[in-house]
Specification:
Number of strands: 11
Helix content: under 10%
Order of helices and strands: EEEEEEHEEEEE
Radius of gyration: 14 Å
Number of helices: 1
Length: 128
């Protein structure tokens, strides 16, 4: 079982920045492939970015990669994954979810999109 707790959401103006955090806890000493999704009102949950256990490999959804406004990173020693949101736009308003794969023994550089565990979500609202 992996528990994920997100934080860092809030209300910002267009052009502002936020850094979301996701703290993972599970098997002692384990790290997991993790990622971020978001879900806007009335829309499906959207994949944003994923990062390997080592932090050396990242993968972004094409739309996110092309805009180059979001950056995923991790502090493996603390088992925390971050999502830095820059130059925010009103259309970025959504609940942002942390995601983790259960395989703590995955290759350290393996990226997983859509793992087994979800956090409770953190609201990001961008005003125009």
């Amino acid at each position: 079982q992996v528990q994920l707790v997100e934080s860092g959401g809030g209300l910002v103006q267009t052009g502002g920045s936020l850094r979301l955090s996701c703290a993972a806890s599970g098997r002692t000493g384990s790290t997991y492939p993790m990622g971020w999704f978001r879900q806007a009102p009335g829309k499906e949950r959207q994949f944003l970015a994923a990062i390997s256990r080592s932090g050396a490999k990242t993968y972004y959804a094409d739309a996110i990669h092309n805009q180059a406004r979001f950056i995923i990173s991790r502090d493996s020693a603390k088992n925390v994954v971050y999502l830095e949101l820059n130059r925010l736009k009103p259309e970025d308003t959504a609940v942002y979810y942390c995601n983790a794969d259960a395989n703590a023994d995955a290759d350290p550089d393996e990226v997983v999109v859509g793992g087994d565990y979800w956090g409770q979500g953190t609201q990001v609202s961008v005003s125009s």
